[in-house]
Amino acid sequence: MRVEFDRDTCTGMFQCTAEWDAFEENREDGKADLRDAAEEDEDVFVREVPEDAEFDAKMAARVCPVDAIRVYDDDGEQIV
């Protein structure tokens, strides 16, 4: 499972940070940061989700008010 985070879309509500500790508040930029992520495209960051964090990653995506977080299964299908 992997997570994709569109930082440009992020509005800095930081709800994701309460759901998964891989997201951190960046008050200076007014946006969240996804720890240990690689920049795939301009302002789009991706990382693998550890098995023990799958529920948390899905919840972070579900609570994002602007849908800046997407979760994909191992086959590449978006599940959140």
Automatic annotation (TrEMBL):
Specify whether Iron-sulfur is a keyword of the entry. yes
Q: Which UniProt keywords apply?
A: Electron transport, Iron, Iron-sulfur, Metal-binding, Transport
The protein's name in its UniProt record: Ferredoxin
Q: A Gene Ontology MF term for this entry? A: metal ion binding
- Record-linked Pfam families: Fer4_15
The superkingdom listed in its UniProt entry is Archaea
UniProt key word DNA-binding: no
SUPFAM superfamilies recorded for this chain? Answer: 4Fe-4S ferredoxins
